[in-house]
Specification:
The complex is a heterodimer of chains A (426) and B (470).
Chain A lengths: L1 H25 L1 H18 L1 H4 L6 E4 L2 E3 L1 H9 L7 H4 L8 E5 L44 H37 L5 E3 H20 L2 H6 L2 H28 L6 E3 L2 H13 L3 H11 L5 H11 L2 H14 L3 H8 L4 H13 L1 H24 L8 H8 L6 H29 L6
Antiparallel strand pairs in A: 1-2, 1-3, 4-5
Chain B lengths: L1 H28 L4 H6 L7 H15 L8 E5 L12 H14 L2 H20 L6 H13 L6 H14 L3 H23 L9 E5 L5 H10 L13 H36 L4 H15 L2 H12 L23 H39 L2 H8 L4 H39 L4 H10 L3 H29 L5 H4 L2
Antiparallel strand pairs in B: 1-2
Classes of the chains: A mainly alpha (426), B mainly alpha (470).
Amino acid sequence: MFKRKKHIESLESNAYWARVSREFKKNRLAVWSLRILYVLLFIAIFADFIANEKPIYCKVEGQTYFPVIKSYGVQLGLDEWPKDLAMADWYKLDYGAVLWAPIPYSAKTIDFKNNHYRSPFGPQRVESNKFWHWLGTDELGHDIAAGMISGTRTAMLVGIIAMSIATILGIFFGALAGFWGDDRFKVSRLRLYLNILAIPLGIFYGFKARPLAWYEGSFGSELFKSIGIVFFVFLLFNGIAFLLERAKRSGKMITIPVDLLVMRFIEIMNSIPALLLLLSIVAIINDQSIIYVMIIIGFIRWTGIARFIRSELLRVRRLEYIEAAEALGLSKWKTLFRHAIPNALTPVLISISFGIAGAILLEAFFSFLGITDGDVTWGSILKTARRYPSAWWLAVLPGAAIFMTVTIFNLIGDGLSNAMNPKKVK
Amino acid sequence: MQKYLLKRFWILLLTLFAVSLFAFALSKMAPGDPVEQFEDVPIQGSKAQRLRSYKRTAQKLGVDKPLFYFQFSSAAYPDTLYRITNYYERETIKRLIARYGNWELIQNYWHEIHEMERKIEKLPDSLDRNALIKLRQNTTDLFVFHKPGKINKAFRNIHTALENEALYSAIHQDSERLANAYQRVVNEPSKYKHYVPKFAWHGLDNQYHIWFSNFFTGNFGYSYESNQKIETKIWSHLRWTLLLNVLALFIIFSISIPIGVYGAVHQDSWLDHWGSLGLFILYSLPSFWIATLLIIFFTTPEYGMDWFPTHGLGDISEDDSFWDIFWMRAYHLVLPVFCMSYASLAFVSRQMRGGMIDVFQQDYIRTARAKGLAEQLVIWKHSFRNALFPIITLVASIFPGLLAGSLVIEVIFSIPGMGKLTIDSIYARDWPVVYTILMFSALMTMIGILVADLLYAWADPRVSFAKKSK
């Protein structure tokens, strides 16, 4: 019986998807944006094969190498460079045969012969057109084309990581608020007390009980461990609650107005000035790597998604098949994850695509200000443009890339929202 | 309405409390000794004098008090640790406790270091100079060493310094006591104490309480960097940000409203069509890019378009007339104000256009037209007012955004406003200023949201907050 129901449901959702994608395809701008996005994703994934100072394939002294692939192995510690290649200048090796990447420079390769802002059209000291800096160089001789490729990867990573975190948080809080509402979240008194107790204890054993590890370990891994311990404490206490509930020693059931609590929490989150908060957090983390910016953006930007999920679930919750699932005796959690959330997810795509645009813009802004450092990004190239006005290519290209990426995500979001609410099209 | 206001007020307080906790925690987590950062210049004089001056500064900055109302930590940490005024000593003790967990023994060890230092201070200069310097150096090093390897090395150095006979006879007892005290710390650790939670109450006389209540009386403390009071610093910067924002807001609304109305009235004309596209693009252009481009192309002779000043607000001498100053400022503000306003301008135009189109579809507009009202009257009297509601709320929501937007514009154009102050303070590690600004902008954001809600209710009597709050 379940099987059949599932079948019907999937048919229904397929029909919905078909309608949405049909509407979406009518929107030429959005479709083109999606195509450009595929290209950007391709560049981001294969960035190392597109711009690299090492050849993709080469033959040195009779030995065949695939240096780009090999360097992945070296980075993971699985492989090692032979002695004569470890410190070698890849441009000066005596190759039997060689296949260079389309852009034969990495983002951080310094080309001493072409330093001090070589224009793409100006004279460049290169051996052949193969090594021409198609988008010019900066002061030290970094190839800008390679920098743009590396920037594409960073931008996509920022979008994906920040929005993954935001989506997980958003779905969690949105589902809590929308599915249970103010009157359906019931817990036994015992479980409530145990969870309240777990908050300070989790914080204590996660963060306070291991001061030496925090002083001497690395920030990222210790944070990870600490959060793991906090989770474990909660799991433990809920396990105890579960056992006691089975033994019917858990006291009266209490209704918790989760919707109210979550909405208040969202209101509080929204009135915090996100940019300044980000700035001040990033400023005190000594490590200036972009990964923290991504994570923090994720932790700040989940409220929009949570609102979307909530309002969707408020609607879905009243649909017949959810009632049917509950009447059949499915547990609340199973109903939520198997039946309610999958049907509420589509509109979240709108919020995610706008969110990615915002996250990319924010990251570019941070590298532009020089708050984050490390990888070459669009923002960091744009930053260098201010030092030397004649180098127009440093200002025009990365900015255009940021603009294009942000715009295509906005257009995709627009297209999705129009496709899902065809009536509201203006 | 009153109920709604009350609810809003509670949320405002709660948010402010949350932000203040966050800002405070962050400012305390920031590395560095505030007293040293504040004093800057090394103070001359004897050790006792320096100590007194250090204590005075610590008192002035209020860092000699417990951090918070209560302390929730492991039993290994004493609740009186804040009484050790010196930042580095406190940090070293914290780390020693983290390693060994036996506070009583560490306290004893610390006492012995101080004793030893005092003794060395009193030694006559007639003794072997080199050995004395070595002894003194390695003893003071113990105040900052917490890793066993380093401490042992310092002890070994002290031992070699004591090979000098005269020194040995003068101080060997103290040095042995010190070494024994350290050995006890190492040999009798009580690490289990880290796993025992402890709660201690500190009362109202704590750093957070004083900082937070001072914030509301307008006393924000001192900037580390310039030793100025933060409020003077903020006021002198705030006026430029306010000027920028007021100008930008004025331009945004005086241009975007006519554009939006025009677009709605001439809906689907070619001008509206291309205008909409243009506005969309304008809205998506990152302002820091546009600002950089403008600076590069219009403020340097490189491309033959050196029309505007690159940065700053212009030099003004005492005897300039009002109009000279006015034109000078205006000339310098053209580009920054443009960069700040164009995105919001596009956004508000789009909203205005959408709002007008919505209103045009209402029944009462059809009625107005049917009874033969002049089109101008229909547009401006009947539609415009109603389309204005969403725009009003935008004022408030744009405001915090403008503050953030002015951050980058001020940095790029070197305008001494709040945004530049924030970034400069972050670079200078001047945390009190950074966190005061964070609190300020949180307050501004919340007031913005509140004002938006109130304006909304005022402009549209149909809005009922009693219902909305559910």
